[in-house]
Amino acid sequence: MKGKILWGRLLRRAAALFLATLAVWVLPLCTGAGAASALRELGEDPGFVAAALEAELGLDPGEGPLAALDGWGRLAVGQSPLLLANPSEGEEAEEAEALDLPAGQPARDLDDITPPPVTTAAPSDIVARTLVPTSPEGYDVAGGLYLYNRTDLDVDLAAAASAAVPITLPEEGPQILIVHTHGTEAYTPDGTDVYTPSDNNTRTLDTNYNMVRVGDEMEQVFTEMGLGVIHDETLYDYPQYNGAYDRSAAAVEAYLEQYPTIRIVLDVHRDALIGEDGTVYKAVTTVDGTSTAQVMLVLGSSEGGEHPNWMENLTLACKIQNGMNTLYPTLARPMTLRSSRYNQQLCSGSLLVEVGTHGNTLQEALAGARLFARAAGQVLLGLEA
Predict the structure, then answer these.
(1) Alpha-carbon gap, residue 251 to 30, rounded angstroms
(2) What's the pLDDT score for residue 116?
(3) Residue 98 CB-half CA count within 13 A
(4) For residues 253 and 246, is the Cβ–Cβ distance under 8 A?
(5) Is 269 helix (H, G, I), strand (E, B) or coil?
(6) Could you give the 3-state DSSP secondary structure of residue 170?
(7) Residue 283: its H or E element
(8) Among 157, 186, 204, 283, which is least packed, fewest CB within 10 Å?
(9) What is the DSSP string of 200-266?
(10) Are the C-beta atoms of 202 and 187 separated by less than 8 Å?
(11) Would strands 229-231 and 176-179 be described as parallel, antiparallel, or unpaired?
């Protein structure tokens, strides 16, 4: 038995070393001469080999050789697409791959599990990044649309983008439902926006500072545009986080039954972005001189269960994403498709909307929410009967 275990370990290490070496010699083919030279030099660095082994064998990347690698080393080991880093005025640009994330994507999955630990930081310690793709690598691309497909499903993004949205909004009655499955999610306290946390993960029961406040901003913009909105302010993730999606699903079904004119369901969240070293990042851009949280649309799919209309949701997301790209370039992060359904099987006009990250301030999030609502509102007005 011990012999089998030993052989298993040796085989795993040999495979890991092979993959590390392969990364050094194959990646340069796609990165240019300068990168090639830098990466080949890594092959002679024992620290790089140790880091590659650390990564391939599934060891903790937060300490040890991987944490000490420079940008090229992390790229070779992690194989993450680059991010476009927009430093603040007067700030020198840092290596974009420091996030160790695919371009503009979240550091965690939005599954109905115990909330992941979120590192908090003072506003001055948070690193601002405008997260947009710099390459089509790792994406489904159609025109100016980018979809980060986290499923094994084949997606014809061009077909989804060109299709007509199969939704007609009635002229009378509520048309849009805004809900918050994780309503206690909040932002970095800053200035006068200081709240009493419900735990140590930038969450609060105070609806003046959590996702309910962001939903209020969207509701106001939609209403001013003449759209009918119901805003559910229930905190489905409190007092228990687990089961939040089940509870919000029951509520959505009840609303759809009570108000059959509802065609659009927006589940509004915020994301969390944390680097390997614990650095807190915020997804932010500048629109008309205002610091604004970026917005990401997350789509569920049939990979997580019965969901026959997920492509219709994707078509709607494409229209809204195009609207944001046209009105406010860099407001939108790439769309993401995941295996979980996020209750989107309940209505073919369902989207999960991520407004900023926990590193953003509330004011940045409110600015992003307003711009998202204006762009989305223009699309939705075109669907009225």
Answers:
(1) 49
(2) 67
(3) 15
(4) no
(5) strand
(6) coil
(7) strand 280-287
(8) 157
(9) SSSBBS-TTTBHHHHHHHHHHHHHHTT--EEE----TTSS-STTHHHHHHHHHHHHHHH-TT--EEE
(10) yes
(11) parallel
User: 104-120 in b/e burial notation, b at 16+ Cβ within 10 A?
Assistant: bbbbeebebeebeebbe
Answer whether 244's CB lies under 8 Å from 237's CB. yes
Sign of CA dihedral 27, 33, 34, 36: positive
pTM of the model: 0.74
- Which residues of the chain, if any, have pLDDT below 50? 1-13, 15-17, 19-20, 22-100, 108-109
H or E segment and range at residue 298 = strand 295-299
Distance, in Å, from the CA atom of 27 to the CA atom of 36, rounded to the nearest integer, reads: 8
Looking at the DSSP assignment, which residues form a beta bridge with residue 193? 190
Report the number of secondary-structure helices (H) and strands (E) in the chain. Answer: 10, 12
Beta carbons of 186 and 359 less than 8 angstroms apart: no
Residues 58, 47 contacting (CB under 8 angstroms): no
Q: Give the pLDDT confidence of 15-61 residue by residue, as tens digits.
A: 444 544 544 444 444 444 444 444 344 444 444 444 444 443 333 33
Would you say 380 and 322 are in contact if contact means Cβ atoms under 8 Å apart? no
DSSP-assigned letter for residue 210? B
SS3 200: coil
227, amino acid identity: L
Question: Cβ distance 145 to 176 under 8 Å?
Answer: no
Residue showing tokens 């590659």? 52
